[in-house]
Write the structure tokens for this entry.
Amino acid sequence: MKLRYNYRLYPDAPQQASLARLFGCVRAVWNDALARRKAGWKADRAWISGPRLQQMCITAAKRTPERDWLGQVSPVPLQQSLRDLDVAYQNFFASVSGKRKGPKMGLPVFKSRRDLRQSARFTTTAFRLRPGGAGDALYLAKIGEIEVRWSRELPAAPSSVTVVKDAAGRYFASFVVDVPDDSQTLAQVDVETGIDLGLTHYAVTSDGEKIANPKWLHRRERKLKKVQRALARKRKGSANRAKARIKLARQHAKVGDARRDFLHQTSTTIVRENQAVAVEGLAVRGLARGRLAKSVNDASWGTFLRLLEGKAARYGRTFIAIDRWYPSSQLCPCCGHKIGKLGLDVRAWDCPSCGEHHDRDIAAALNILAEGIRLKTQDGLNDVAAGLADTRNDCEEQVRPGKAIPTLAPPETFTAQAA
């Protein structure tokens, strides 16, 4: 299992200049290789291989007056740039042929010097972790030792490191570490949960817990508007406009960092406390094009679901995605009665069949949990309403279990309790 660990870097002024030169060289090699590959294909449908591109765009280019400055940086990031180009083409061909899942991938495009995010990757031959007084220092070839803020220890020796400069002018080191697949497996617990996502409450679990929606973008919206207006008044190409752009990027970075921290902490807590997690599949892209687009994008449901799925696989948990068309908010979790489509303003309702009063979000989470149980066990519990009650033997009594029961108890248990 490959994991990625990110740390903040604090290069000094000469190191920043060296990194800027390195980013420019990586970009130039990428653009040269992409241009040659496009020209060769357009001329006679010839495919230039990766080793041939390396010889043309790096080895031979260093001997020309136009590209002699490529020799001022380490050749390893330049070679990695060409490997990234090969991977980009492979992803495009796999996407076109249908072998790659997910959204369609396009052809690689040229990189611009105005790109706000720049990066360069080093392999083990071009970087070292040298022991220091306050922790290991990161040594990069032809750049030197850079100060690193070690927020946590690396579980193993890294196989590569990517130096990234974001839009706000911050530098990060992203290490790739290879660890055994079962090294982070947690002890099993007898608790399972269903999660209903929303905007009023970010997440509601089947045991009744409601996680508040932080609304990070809304919190800084006034500050963002102020900085954005200041940027709009600056003359294009001026130094003041560049400073104003960085101020705006830092505000957006604060929003992104706070949101990312919230998503990581929430997903980790849920995965650690539950053996199985059932969630409803959402068409986030479609929701992000509606009238609630700003709120949906601020919630970042897609990232949250990806984090849940990835951490569940890492820690030995079960992640279950329910079909997006499953009517979780329309079913009674006690008797299975379908009340029909409800307006967004209806937050609670009474079941006309069994008379039970339901909180809309909690009922949806209970139904999602039960549907996840059914999908996981595949026992064909079609006549069990939401997997929580046997409607054939309820005798018009309240058979809704307590909070401790929705942990994969078999249908016979509920039948016995109802009787």
In short: Confidence is low (pLDDT under 50) at residues 379-419.
